[in-house]
Amino acid sequence: MSAVPRFEKPAGRFRRMLDRLSSSQEDLESEELREDAETAGCTRIGDCRDRQIVTVTGTLRTVTLRPRAGVPALEAELFDGSAAVDVVWLGRRSIVGIEPGRRLIASGRISMSRGRRVLFNPKYELRPLGRE
After folding, report:
1. How far is it, in rounded angstroms, from Cα 114 to Cα 81?
2. Do 48 and 54 contact (CB within 8 A), yes or no?
3. Helix ranges (DSSP H) in 40-70
4. How many whole angstroms separate alpha carbon 76 and alpha carbon 85?
5. How many Å separate Cα 88 from the centre of its chain?
6. Kind and range of the H or E run holding 19
7. DSSP of 70-105, one letter per residue?
8. 76: which strand partners?
9. Contacts of 104 (CB under 8 A, 6+ apart)
10. To 10 degrees, the CA torsion angle through 33, 35, 36, 38?
11. CA-to-CA distance for 20 and 130, rounded, in angstroms?
């Protein structure tokens, strides 16, 4: 029996094709998002720590208007295939282009709120919608 677990062995072309065919759509999308974050030179959300200044990229899963202490706040969940971060713009009811399914790059300081990663009022850049 081999001492190297299967997931650590180099995968051949047939093995990779078989893995892609047997993977769920969600797994394939997560892998694509992780690769996109790596090629963009961004930090994986799963690797972000509290109070760290980061640049992350991913796809917006949800966008909601949720007041915080009586002030409007636009909240979005950004997912990069490894984990999710809540992106919050305080004092905003809407932002053109911020919608579910949109890809973006966000920069700022990560904080932890109720056990979740949060970016408040980040700098952001909207990514193209299609493959360009």
Report:
1. 21
2. yes
3. none
4. 8
5. 14
6. helix 13-22
7. TB-EEEEEEE-SS-EEEEEEET-S--TT--TT-EEE
8. 63, 87
9. 57, 58, 60, 78, 98, 124, 125, 126, 127
10. 130
11. 22
Distance CA 52, CA 110 (A): 6
Residue 15's identity, in one-letter code, is R
Amino acid letter for position 61: R
Per-residue pLDDT of the chain (132 residues; tens, 9 = 90+): 444 444 445 567 776 666 666 667 676 676 777 777 778 888 999 999 999 999 999 999 999 999 888 899 999 999 998 899 999 999 999 999 999 999 999 999 999 989 999 999 999 999 887 554
45 close to 82: Cβ distance less than 8 angstroms? yes
Q: Which amino acid is residue 21, in one-letter code? A: L
Q: Which two tokens stand for residue 23?
A: 């993977």
Global pTM value: 0.74
